[in-house]
């Protein structure tokens, strides 16, 4: 038991009960279906922009890029153009690769002692793999959901759906009816990766030690989102046409409450709303923060270009010439050498 | 306090934020001025005359794809072609000859909901829309 993850788990359970009881018990369909989603998207957008503007107001007085290779120097020394970017173009390439492939996580190392006191490094790639699976699956899930928010559904959303459902799980039909509607792999990968990232924080002692409630909360929330989504698609069979009519009402500003939709749909919607509203105030802001990170977005060119510290203020200097000018007579009286005689 | 501060790399940051806001508000501007009510299904005269489907309307709406999957399994793997519904009526397990016999208007019946929620079932890869064509 650990207070930090129990706190987050209880928070997510309370959110679940709030939405479920609010809709099924108190009939607050308008609150959970219309008001909270609108408020959440507004908080997300304004909060996100506010955080980025706030970060952009912080000066970066020094070039502090992380370098992972040979710096560009003499012509006969081969530089690592991307890992030690000397130009803005190389910075852009490194940034794109970092965002799409998480190269810095790929370098993740684990330290341990072999028999005796032999220190060694292990190339620990499970975190990289889990993180990559999680983020790409989440992106696919978000793009797939645009089918509820666009009419007609754009072709690129349909492409993602087709790619996502290439794996046909129909060979279980005799004992388990899960092949239809078609299995979307991204939803299952998202759930599995989020559970892995959660277990990692709970099981590995060092990672558990540095994990806070704010690390567990988004994971529990995303697991809740994935579970409620999977439950609706494969087991509860929510009225999907009614749901699309509802979401289209939201995005065209003519919201109306669908007739035959269960509380789990509102739980799903409420979880997503909470995630969006929580986003700008949490570690999830690494979505915007990666672009603002001075260790990633600066070129390592301080040997070829002069960068003046923007924090510099005009310093009053007193040169030796001025000093001698001021004290020359006294210096000569005291027998001190001067550069210019009286 | 914030008003006294300046933004560094203002051009790049503002450009990035504009792209972000455009992406985030995609559903709002993509559907601007469009109304997208749920599609209305047209029943053929034959379907109207029949009044009931193999299951209730609600069950069919939510579970027709599973029923078809079970039917296919039953016909292709087990060679059982007769389906008995809850009220004891017998049907032949056939998409072309049973389902599409009444619902012969694919474009106004099947496709309307499927297109609305972007579902592209591969039933039609083999089963031709019009059951009469399938029989020859």
Structure characterization notes:
By secondary structure, chain A is an all-alpha fold. Chain A has 2 domains: 3-311, Up-down Bundle (Fumarate Reductase Cytochrome B subunit); 314-342, no CATH class. Helices cover 59% and strands 3% of the residues of chain A. Chain A is built from 14 helices and 2 strands. Chain A has helices spanning 3-25, 29-56, 88-101, 103-106, 126-145, 155-164, 185-203, 205-210, 213-236, 240-251, 263-278, 286-292, 294-297, 320-333; strands at residues 109-113, 119-123. In chain A, strands 1-2 form a two-stranded antiparallel sheet. The longest helix of chain A has 28 residues, at 29-56. Chain A starts with a helix and ends in a 9-residue tail after the last helix. Chain B is mainly alpha-helical. Chain B has a domain at 45-135. Helix content of chain B is 53%, strand content 4%. Chain B is built from 8 helices and 2 strands; from the N terminus they run ααααββαααα. Chain B has helices at residues 10-24, 26-30, 45-50, 57-78, 95-102, 110-116, 123-126, 131-135, and strands spanning 82-84, 90-92. Chain B is elongated. The chains are: A mainly alpha (342), B mainly alpha (136). The interface between A and B is large, with 49 and 43 residues.
Task: Give the tags.
heterodimer; A: 342 residues; mainly alpha; Fumarate Reductase Cytochrome B subunit; B: mainly alpha; two-stranded antiparallel sheet; 8 helices; 2 strands; elongated; disordered C terminus
Biggest sheet details of chain B? 2 strands, antiparallel
Secondary-structure element order of chain B, N to C: HHHHEEHHHH
Strand order of the largest sheet of chain A: 1-2
Largest sheet of chain A: 2 strands, antiparallel
**Overall mean pLDDT score of chain A?**
91
Biggest interface, residues from each chain: A-B, 49 and 43 residues
Low-pLDDT runs of chain B: 131-136
Count of DSSP-assigned helices of chain A: 14
Give a count of the beta strands of chain A, DSSP E runs of length 2 or more: 2
- What Rg of chain B is obtained from the alpha carbons, in whole angstroms? 25 Å
- First CA to last CA of chain A: what distance? 84 Å
| SSE pattern of chain A | HHHHEEHHHHHHHHHH
The amount of beta strand of chain B, in percent, is: under 5%
Low-confidence stretches of chain A: none
CATH topology of the largest domain in chain A: Fumarate Reductase Cytochrome B subunit
Supply the CATH superfamily name of the largest domain in chain A.
Answer: Transmembrane di-heme cytochromes, Chain C
